[in-house]
């Protein structure tokens, strides 16, 4: 027998909003309450009443009440979700960065992080862009795609990219200049390893396509006569 | 200078303004001083101002306001499509369309090809200069 479809519409057609076609007694008959009652020996089946909760310990009335009523703020139940990703941006798309240190660079898109930012890599050996977060608004998506199936990006999320907290030391005047020199830190080796881990399968996929490596190494710029609104990316 | 391309029944024209921009149509009738009845195999027959049409060299042999089937057969017989695509005007339009549809990677490859071609030409030129010197 074909599986029975669950009835979704009411059995009482609406004549005017608020007024149905059938009376209460007719509806009782239509819903088959009489048949359900007969099946269960004369009364409609119901759940056993829940046991009453154990009497809580008596709360002592407080001695202090505030003079005026204080308004309770409504609890915020919003859960932020990551920005909607443009349909043209899929893993492996070549993006053109429009702002910042790497403006004009063509870069490979890896995945969208939970904060909404895009995780992107040069690859580093090709154009000097490391694993980096980038905002979708500052990016043009081209229609060129790179095969990204060999790359595992599971371990990267927003926490990976946060700056490390600097320990605050109380500085004397003499030590002021010395501390300035310590500011530049070398990149930790595990970040360099992560870069290599992501880039090696990517570079293999890139070298498989003719001219793609040179393309990613070159910067994008507008020339005379190029109209961005007429260009197909 | 006498005119060479005339508005006549069977003249193939290119629409240069409006909704049908870029379409090749055939003039099937003249309505008045400014308008023509115009038809194409994949279009509903309709009127168009002459100012919206650019006449081409191609002319086909049709009676006044032919049935769609007659029009299509006449266009096949005169081989309008191939004549247009082989004419210099038609070829230019095809190239323009292709260039407009190039994507960013394609434009990069075109740039590399142009540089390579320029290099080859300059090498040959240098060789010829050396020979004649």
TrEMBL record, chain A:
Residue ranges of every copy of the Large ribosomal subunit protein uL6 N-terminal domain listed in the record: 4-57
Cellular compartments per GO CC: cytosolic large ribosomal subunit
Entry-linked InterPro entries: 60S_ribosomal_eL6, Rib_uL2_dom2, Ribosomal_eL6_CS, Ribosomal_eL6_KOW, Ribosomal_uL6_N, Translation_prot_SH3-like_sf
CDD domains in the cross-refs: KOW_RPL6 (cd13156)
Gene Ontology annotations of biological process type: cytoplasmic translation; ribosomal large subunit assembly
PROSITE patterns in UniProt: RIBOSOMAL_L6E
Gene3D superfamilies: 2.30.30.30
GO function term, MF aspect, one: structural constituent of ribosome
Keywords: Ribonucleoprotein, Ribosomal protein
Record-stated family: Belongs to the eukaryotic ribosomal protein eL6 family.
Full protein name: 60S ribosomal protein L6
UniProt organism field: Canna indica (Indian-shot)
Automatic annotation (TrEMBL), chain B:
Keyword Transcription recorded: no
Keyword annotations from UniProtKB, A to Z: Ribonucleoprotein, Ribosomal protein
UniProt KW rRNA-binding keyword: no
UniProt cross-references to CDD domains, sorted A to Z: eL14
Short name of any one Pfam family annotated for the protein: Ribosomal_L14e
Entries under InterPro entries matching the protein: Rib_uL2_dom2, Ribosomal_eL14, Ribosomal_eL14_dom, Translation_prot_SH3-like_sf
A GO term for molecular function: mRNA binding
Residue ranges of every copy of the Large ribosomal subunit protein eL14 domain listed in the record: 45-117
Gene3D superfamilies: 2.30.30.30, 6.10.250.2270
The family this protein is said to belong to: Belongs to the eukaryotic ribosomal protein eL14 family.
Official protein name in the record: 60S ribosomal protein L14-1
Phylogenetic placement of the source organism: Eukaryota, Viridiplantae, Streptophyta, Embryophyta, Tracheophyta
């Amino acid at each position: 027998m074909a599986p029975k479809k669950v009835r979704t519409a009411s059995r009482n057609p609406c004549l005017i909003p608020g007024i149905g076609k059938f009376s209460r007694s007719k509806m009782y008959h239509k819903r088959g309450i009489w048949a359900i009652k007969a099946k269960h020996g004369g009364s409609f089946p119901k759940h056993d009443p829940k046991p009453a909760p154990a009497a809580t310990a008596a709360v002592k009335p407080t001695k202090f009440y505030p003079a005026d009523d204080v308004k309770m703020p409504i609890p915020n139940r919003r859960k932020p979700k990551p920005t909607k990703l443009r349909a043209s941006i899929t893993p492996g798309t070549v993006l053109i960065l429009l702002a910042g240190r790497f403006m004009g660079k063509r870069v490979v898109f890896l995945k969208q992080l939970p904060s909404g930012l895009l995780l992107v890599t040069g690859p580093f050996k090709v154009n000097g862009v490391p694993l980096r977060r980038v905002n979708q608004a500052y990016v043009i998506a081209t229609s060129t795609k790179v095969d990204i199936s060999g790359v595992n990006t599971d371990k990267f999320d927003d926490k990976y990219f946060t700056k490390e907290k600097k320990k605050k030391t109380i500085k004397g005047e003499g030590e002021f200049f010395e501390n300035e020199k310590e500011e530049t830190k070398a990149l930790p080796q595990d970040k360099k390893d992560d870069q290599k881990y992501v880039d090696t399968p990517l570079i293999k996929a890139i070298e498989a396509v003719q001219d793609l490596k040179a393309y990613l190494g070159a910067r994008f710029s507008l020339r005379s006569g190029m109209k961005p609104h007429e260009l197909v990316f | 200078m006498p005119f060479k391309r005339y508005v006549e029944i069977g003249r193939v024209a290119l629409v240069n303004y409006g909704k049908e921009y870029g379409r090749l149509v055939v003039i099937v009738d003249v309505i008045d001083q400014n308008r023509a009845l115009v038809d194409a195999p994949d279009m509903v027959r309709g009127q168009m101002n002459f100012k919206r049409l650019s006449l081409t060299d191609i002319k086909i042999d049709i009676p006044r306001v032919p049935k769609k089937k007659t029009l299509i057969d006449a266009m096949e017989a005169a081989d309008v499509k191939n004549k247009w695509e082989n004419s210099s005007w038609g070829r230019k339009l095809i190239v323009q369309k292709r260039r407009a549809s190039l994507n960013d990677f394609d434009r990069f490859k075109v740039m590399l090809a142009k540089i390579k071609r320029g290099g080859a030409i300059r090498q040959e030129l240098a060789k010829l200069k050396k020979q004649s010197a």
